[in-house]
Backbone:
């Protein structure tokens, strides 16, 4: 989608019908703007959680920058360096810096060809180009970084497992983040029985690094999304539209529109947008709608676009039933990000 309209004013996301070609998808497989300059040095490990510093040191060795493991003295038996697996898998809660570390790997790895994308972006690439063409394009890549490796259906499980299974033997190294350990993918979400063998085989390609900690986004926040009344909202939209480009949509209209756009194109809905405005927020009752909103929030957060809203707080859009189900971690991550985005507005 080529953006030729004015860079200021008020627009409606529901009027946008973004398209994106396979080559454009491939070219966009780079870290989000907020992680353009992410490095291991700029990662601030929390001293209260030693696993953060330990993970950073392991990842620095993974890209060839870390110091070798300490060995014993003259009379001590030398410790053997652990064999490096072709992939590293960062497992931990949301807000502990996994994506920052993943982007640090991308920037630090001396690679001729490397790609960085969300799980959904890679599966969308397969959908756009076909499986064989995707394998041919990615084969020979030195590094694949996969953010939020959370599998929501058996079809995606099979596609990604096959894809990685074809790339790893050719020398491609892998780095992934997730809120779920690789040998537990699918648990609580779908009947993974038929896919356990593939999931466990994929798990063997990764060294799993557990990263503990608390959500850094909530350390300076009061824990609740900011809500505006109608007057405040109107003034904020008008002020933003006078100098930048703001979107203004009803919550219900946006939710309906997201069902008509493939999640891989959500980022194109946001092209040129400096502020997202949502009117009449309320709790969702349909899980498909909720998961589409999660995918949309991820793209808004990647682009670091502030959000303003009226109605119910955006931290209350997921029901208690949803928050206690198999997608719990996805919803909690979205709430964390929505809180941060409404405060940044």
Residues:
């Amino acid at each position: 989608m080529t953006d030729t309209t004015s860079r200021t004013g008020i627009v409606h996301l529901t009027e946008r019908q973004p398209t994106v070609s396979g080559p454009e998808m491939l070219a966009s497989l780079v870290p989000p703007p907020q992680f353009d300059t992410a490095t291991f040095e700029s990662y601030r490990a929390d001293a209260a959680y030693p696993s953060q510093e330990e993970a950073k040191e392991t990842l620095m060795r993974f890209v060839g920058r870390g110091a070798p493991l300490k060995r014993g003295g003259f009379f001590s038996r030398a410790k053997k360096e652990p064999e490096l697996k072709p992939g590293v898998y960062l497992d931990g809660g949301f807000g502990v810096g996994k994506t920052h570390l993943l982007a640090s790997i991308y920037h630090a790895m001396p690679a001729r060809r490397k790609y960085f994308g969300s799980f959904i972006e890679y599966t969308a690439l397969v959908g756009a180009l076909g499986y064989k063409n995707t394998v041919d394009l990615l084969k020979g890549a030195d590094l694949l970084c996969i953010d939020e490796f959370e599998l929501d259906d058996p079809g995606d499980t099979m596609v990604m497992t096959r894809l990685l299974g074809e790339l790893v033997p050719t020398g491609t190294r892998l780095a992934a983040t997730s809120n779920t350990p690789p040998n537990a993918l699918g648990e609580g979400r779908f009947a993974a029985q038929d896919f356990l063998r593939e999931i466990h085989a994929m798990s063997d390609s990764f060294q799993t690094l557990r990263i503990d900690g608390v959500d850094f986004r909530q350390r300076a926040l009061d824990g609740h999304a900011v809500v505006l009344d109608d007057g405040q909202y109107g003034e904020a939209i008008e002020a933003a539209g006078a100098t930048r480009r703001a979107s203004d949509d009803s919550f219900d209209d946006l939710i309906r529109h997201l069902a008509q756009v493939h999640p891989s194109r959500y980022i194109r809905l946001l092209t040129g947008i400096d502020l997202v405005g949502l009117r009449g927020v309320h709790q969702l009752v349909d899980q498909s709608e909720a998961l589409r909103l999660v995918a949309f929030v991820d793209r808004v957060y990647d682009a670091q676009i502030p959000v303003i809203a009226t109605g119910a707080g955006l931290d209350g859009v997921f029901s208690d039933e949803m928050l206690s189900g198999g997608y719990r971690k996805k919803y909690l991550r979205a709430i964390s990000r929505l809180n941060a985005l409404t405060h940044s507005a």
The longest helix spans residues 287-303. The domain at 31-213 is CATH 3.40.50.300 (Rossmann fold). The radius of gyration is 21 Å.
